[in-house]
Amino acid sequence: MLSIKTALPLLLTGAVFSAGTFAAPSVYPTGVTRYDPAKAFNQYVIFSGADKQTHLIDMNGNEVKTWPHAGFPSAVIDPQLVGGKRGHVLLQLSDKDPGKLGSAGNGLGNQSIGELDWNGKVVWQWGDKAPGGAAQQHHDQRRLANGNTVVLANKVHKVAGFKVPEVIDDAIYEVTPEGEVKWQWLASEHLDEFGFTPEQLKLVHASDNPDYLHINNLSLVGPNKWFDAGDKRFNPDNLLLDSRNANFIAIIDKQSGKVVWRLGPNLPLIDPETAQKLPRPVDQFVGQHDAHIIPAGLPGAGNILLFDNQGSAGYPNVTLGLISGSRVLEIDPSTNQIVWQYSAANSKQPGWAFYSSFISSARRLPNGNTLIDEGMNGRFFQVTASGENVWEYVSPYLGKAPGGDAISNWVYRALPVSYDWVPQGTPRAETAVVAPTVAAQQTSASR
Predict the structure, then answer these.
(1) Could you say which residues of the chain have pLDDT below 50?
(2) Eight-class DSSP state of 433
(3) CATH number listed for the domain at residues 37-431
């Protein structure tokens, strides 16, 4: 290996590398880069890679199972909802011509979705019976306790008052096992419930982007202490969603379809002087993903957890550079206060060391850790409540990045999967991986 002292003159004369070649690193470690079995919560992780396949890995990054279909995202089904059968997933099964409005960020290219068993057999499929003859699912699908499936989908149609001739509207369908739509909801019918000012609503209608809200998450509220205490807004059957393009989170009443709880879009800008103070009122999240209520039985149950990308979003766009990276926020929905957060500063790193301007996710684990997917970099990691990184994995699965022909290892969402979700006898490994210390890296670089 050339030392920096030896290589520098060659670099300057162009004898070894051209300036373009040396502009940025091109090789990165993949797989598990650190792992402390005593501090991490030991589990599997499931994700759909940039290679358009769905992967289940163990704590050492070994591929335990692969389904030859992508998920947008992959969704695991609780065995209790399928007669105790383990290892069932919801994925996208077939594609269609997306038309001129199709993109990697919407569902216009999706023909059908379905449930696959552990061996990859399709046991349920939906698409031909969907409105318009295609599922057009995007960002989420969830199996319900009654056997139905809720699907977040797109519907292209004309909506009065919009500048564009047709909008890419966000629709929610509740679909029976027979493929019939039992209940549906359409975002454009509730524009006056999302918290826009009159001036902002004019900007929404005048937008050149037909995907005007880009709802990127749909989850069940689920059992929670707020409903148990009498707050009907948090009925377990209600649905929680968030809009990336408009910077709001909302709970939809399942009976009326009305917004009964909302956070955003207009929040105070982040004050650097108080950005690490807890608790504090929620400040401006931007382009957020994976907002959901932490399930009962987990630390922080009842609070909302979300990945705050701090990308580009809003009507008008929120000023960029509020902070130098992304955040994960835990919010008490009864007080709208941030009660826990993670940013690179919590791991004693500069803010830009943790950043994903789009996609990404965060999930609370039974021991209080949080599994985070820094999506645009294909990096998943577990942090403790204090911000210590105790497990880290970089996806080795490559494919086209959204919006072009560039190659990337991007991952939309990574989900924790308990050991009892898979069939008995499924292998797993839990061998510690020690990351090199700063001193060791400096010694290696000087050789």
Answers:
(1) 1-22, 442, 445
(2) B
(3) 2.120.10.30
